[in-house]
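Appendix C reproduces, verbatim, an entry submitted by the partner laboratory led by Prof. M.T., so that reviewers can inspect both the input and the predicted structure.
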Amino acid sequence: MSETTYQVYAWRHAPGHLLTRRQLRARGLRRAGQDPVAEVRWYRGLKVAYLYDVNRALPVRPMTPGRARALAAAMRARRTCPKCGIDRGYCIPRSYGACWPCVGGDDHDQEHDYVGWETPRDVSLREAAWSANSTTDPHRRTA
């Protein structure tokens, strides 16, 4: 069994044409099946990131309507609790296998799963109260 060896670079010392997968994606490129050509090591050599040649990378394939539907269905499945069947608005933890109320947490309705954020209902109520009571901008400071 042969072990592949790569050129190893220290953090921030790799040439500009060698990029990580995330850096390629940020530029709208994909690695196109190429194997890593080098690696970056940091944190005393414990962390490794593989580098790919930007000259051999290809553009990212465009999102088709079919792929968008499939992605939306997959994300909806991840947000739906298998026990109660409610779309919770967040990905259900695989370690629990169910949403927090079904696991044994606080019993509350779906609207209160958005802890720390305003629900769409809260926003509509606030906007309705503002439009009924005021004709000025609510964010405008008064003297």
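The chain has two domains: 7-59, 82-133. Additional entries are available on request from the coordinating office.
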